[in-house]
């Protein structure tokens, strides 16, 4: 072979090997994909009783789906139905989704939330509806900064921001409060 044929072949071979080396180097520079975060576990169609640090009932829960976060500290729940023990009976709550924080110290009810208090001496229940509600089972209190509607017998209230003392069965609306109070059936 003469040099006029050999030189172009060597040039093509050098370009090909150089391109291959650069391609291999670039492949090593691409970060590995992150591992998929998976739940610690998933529960379907279950009943659960959560205990607080003293060993007493913090809440009971029924739901079609619960997923524990990979960090093992919190849970996400779909279509939950909670029961929170109070001094004079059970508080019932439901929502579209919920989040339970570490050690069940906080329960966040999210979207189309309804909280119903235990029956009073007259048999009436207080019903709260809102978009987001945080319940603190150990402290027997609930709160939100969202808009709230309240029905108590034939009385109706609405406001922005709510604090509920579940032990004393008292509530406080914080801002933009409106209401219709019916002290006796004849007054409404």
Structure description:
This is Lipopolysaccharide export system protein LptC. The chain is mostly beta strands. The chain has a single domain (42-183), classed as Sandwich (lipopolysaccharide transport protein A fold). Helices cover 14% and strands 52% of the residues. The protein is built from one helix and eleven strands. It has one helix at residues 3-29, and strands at 42-51, 57-68, 75-78, 81-86, 89-94, 97-100, 107-116, 126-136, 141-152, 155-165, 170-180. It has a six-stranded antiparallel β-barrel with strand order 2-3-6-7-5-4. Strand 8 (126-136) and strand 9 form a beta hairpin. The chain is elongated, with a radius of gyration of 30 Å. The mean pLDDT is 86.
Summarize the structure.
Keywords: Cell inner membrane, Cell membrane, Membrane, Transmembrane, Transmembrane helix. The protein is mainly β.
Name some characteristics of this structure.
single chain; 188 residues; mainly beta; lipopolysaccharide transport protein A fold; six-stranded antiparallel barrel; 11 strands; elongated; transmembrane helix; cell membrane
């Amino acid at each position: 072979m003469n040099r006029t044929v050999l030189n172009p072949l060597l040039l093509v071979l050098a370009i090909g090997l150089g391109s291959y080396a650069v391609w291999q180097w670039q492949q090593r520079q691409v970060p590995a994909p992150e591992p998929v975060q998976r739940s610690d576990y998933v529960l379907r169609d279950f009943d659960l009783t959560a205990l607080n640090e003293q060993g007493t009932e913090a809440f009971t829960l029924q739901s079609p789906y619960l997923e524990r976060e990979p960090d093992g500290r919190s849970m996400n729940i779909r279509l939950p139905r909670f029961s929170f023990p109070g001094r004079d009976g059970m508080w019932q709550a439901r929502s579209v989704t919920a989040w339970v924080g570490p050690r069940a110290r906080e329960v966040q009810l999210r979207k189309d939330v309804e909280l119903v208090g235990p029956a009073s001496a007259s048999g009436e229940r207080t019903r709260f509806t809102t978009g987001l509600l945080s319940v603190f089972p150990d402290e027997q209190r609930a709160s939100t900064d969202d808009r709230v509607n309240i029905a108590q017998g034939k009385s109706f209230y609405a406001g922005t921001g709510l604090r509920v003392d579940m032990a004393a069965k008292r509530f406080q609306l914080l801002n933009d409060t409106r209401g219709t109070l019916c002290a006796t059936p004849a007054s409404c």
